[in-house]
Amino acid sequence: MKTFDRHGNPVSELAWAADGSLERASVRLPDGSWLSIEPRATTAAPWGLSDRVWRGEQFPESRGWSGEPLTIFEALDWARIDRIPPLAEPGRLPPGGGTAVLNLIAELAREQGATRLAYRGPYPTEQLFLALLESFRYEPEHAPDPLTAFMAGDLAWTPAPHERLFGAGGLFVQRRGLVEKVVFGGAAYYRPDWQSVTRHAPRRVRDVPEGVLCSLWALGRPLEDHLLLSPEGDLRHVLEPVAADGASRPIAPEIRAGVAAAVAAGSAAPLASVIEDVAGAVVLEWGAVGRDLVVIERDRIRVSERFRRALTEALTAARERGPRATLALAAIVELGVLLGDEFRSRAQARLAALPPEAQAAALDPRGTPPSTDGRHARAIADAIEALLRDVGA
Fold first, then answer.
1. How far apart are CA 143 and CA 147, in angstroms?
2. What angle in degrees, to the nearest 10, is found between the helix axes of 305-317 and 321-352?
C-alpha cells in the first residue's frame, strides 16, 4: 500500500502479510531519502523483540533490506498499535527521521481507532516531547507543565498526524489545518505554538496577509524573511535577504561565560562544569552569517551581526536602565538556547571519552557544585554588563 501527497509525490509504503502483520514499512524524509522499518528484526537487548530502522537514499523498490541499519525500537503490533515505543539510539536517526516514524504510528493508530497512547520508555526527553507534539496531542490538555508531566509519565497522547507535502526545489511542509513546519535547504522552520507549549523557534513559521512566511526570529521580532508560502503550503517565493557583510569581531569573554552559565544552569548538574569548560575553549564572535543566526565550527562560533543590530535597536529604544538590563538578559538567555545543544553535546562527548573511573567521579553528585552557590547568577550578571558595553548602551 503506497500513499502520496496531493501533488502525487510518494510519502510512504506499507506491505502487509496475509496474517495481517506488517512485513515492512517505508517513510520519506524531508531531504527526499527514506527510512524503512523491519518488523521483528531482532531479539537483542534492551527490549527483546525489536523492530529495526534502515536508511536508504532512494525509494526502496526491492523486497530485501538494503541501505544502512541505524537503530532499533521496541517491537509494535502494527495492526493493533497500543503504545508509543522507546527507541534505542535517537541520535542515529537523520533529521526528521523520528518525526516521520512517529507520524506513521499516529496515522495507523488513528485508523485503528486508538484514542490514547502512552509512552513508558526510559527516555522521556524534551527532544522526544517536542517530536511527539508534531503528530499527537497530549492529555490532559490543560496540564500546567506538560513537559514535567511527560517526564513523570503522566501524559497520554491522542493520535493527530500531520499532512506531509513534498514540493518543488526540495521544499517539505507539514500541515494540520495550518502550516506548522517547513524544511527548505536543510533548515527547519517551526510555528512557536503547539497546544499550550511555546517552542523556541529561531526559524519561525508565521501567518501574514500574503500567506505564510518563514523567517529568522530573535529577540521577539523577525530579522529576515526566507520563504513565502500559500496557506496550503505551496511555495510562492524564495526570498533573498540583503547579503550580510562586515568584518568579524570578538565577543567579550564575559559574554561567552554568561551564555555558558545560562546553558549550564539549565542542564543536568554533572554536566554544568564541563559545559563551562568546553565553552571556554571556543572563540565567540559577531559577524556575517548567511540565512542563519549562528555558524558553528570546531574552535569558533559566529553569531549573526543581525542579532547584534536587533539588540542595539531594542536597547536604544529602551530609555531606562532596568528595561535595558532586562533586554540584555533576554539576549543572553536566547544565545544560550541557540548554543545550548552544541555545548551540551561537546560536554557529553568529553565525559564519554574519559576512563570509567573518571566518568564515575565526574557524574558523582557529591563532587558537583550546588546550583545554589550563585556562580552562574554572577556570571550572567557580568555578561549583562559586558553586553551593554559591547552594544554601546
1. 9
2. 150
- Written as nine digits, the cell of 310 is 536587533
pLDDT tens for each residue of 234-268: 999 999 987 777 789 999 999 999 999 999 998 88
CB atoms < 10 A from the CB of 61, how many? Answer: 8
- 242: burial class by Cβ within 10 Å (0-12, 13-18, 19+)? exposed
Q: Locate 235 and state its grid cell.
A: 511555495
Q: Which of 192, 370, 142, 181 is nearest to 273 (CA)?
A: 370
Classify residue 391 as left (phi > 0), alpha (psi -120 to 50) or beta.
Answer: alpha
Decide if 142 contacts 196 (C-beta within 8 A).
Answer: yes
Contact 339, 297 (CB under 8 A): no
Burial of 280 (0-12, 13-18, 19+ CB in 10 A): exposed
Report the alpha-carbon distance of residue 390 to residue 393 in Å, rounded.
8
Taking the C-alpha atoms of residue 73 and residue 301, their distance in angstroms, rounded to an integer, is 35
Q: Are 83 and 68 in contact (CB under 8 A)?
A: no
Q: Helix (H, G, I), strand (E, B), or coil: what is residue 257?
A: helix
Residue whose cell numbers read 554568561: 258
Measured torsion, CA atoms of residues 217, 241, 295, 348, in degrees rounded to the nearest 10: 30
Report yes or no: 317 and 391 within 8 Å, Cβ to Cβ: no
Please give the Cα distance from 5 to 173 (Å, whole number): 11
pTM of the prediction? 0.91
- Distance separating alpha carbons of residues 275 and 343, to the nearest angstrom: 6
H-helix segments, the chain? 97-111, 126-133, 146-151, 253-265, 269-280, 305-317, 321-352, 356-363, 375-390
- Which ranges of the chain have pLDDT less than 70? 58-64, 365-373, 393
